[in-house]
What does this fold into?
Amino acid sequence: MCLLILDGLVLNTVMASVTVTVKQKQYVFTHEPQLIEVLAPIANQENWYWPSAVLYQEEGNQLEKMRQLLLNSLTTLITIYQKEEPDIALSLEQLHATITNWHLARRLPIKIDYDLARFSAAANPQLPEGEYILDIALRMNTVQLFGAVNRTNNVPHLPHADVSEYITRQTLTDVADKDYVILIQADGREITTPVAYWNKNHQEVMPGSQLFVPFKESLFHPEFALINQQIMTLAQNRVQQ
It folds into this structure.
């Protein structure tokens, strides 16, 4: 049995087993549904871009703890740079604000595709009891660039373009690693991509992806290694819609 909750009202008083939020609507199942049962009510509502569809599970404690540790580290760096290098401090402040506003939930390693779920048992898993978010959208025409840049920016998607073309159009800070960026494709793949003239390989970007410009790790800034890793973990578990 599936119930649709609108504006917080439920027409039947039952103990829900699985709740899936899709576009601010809640679908409540009194059993543990197969993925196809979750997708069926919304699959044909729009021309969804299935490669970017993601299923998340709400269990925010660990992610929220990591976010707070990261924000504390960024605050410390802002204080250090504020007097001597205010431009870097300003870029860190906007990154702090960006990460503060992220909606976090655990990304599940499940390929979300309605047609695939209909015909393949392996692509149609059963969802155990819990609260989920189905992040589904039309094909986007932007890519988000963030990290050691002057400001977080949604830039136009460039069909068939190499990752480096997104970077050359942006201003990186003095603490950026200018040799590599980390690409989180819209389908969840994480790719460390060389972008310097001496090491780059052609790597295209899916629409709706994230591009993280990491901080340059060094003997003088060993803290950047942990900061980069924390940012990547949170970005992988960021609900974009």
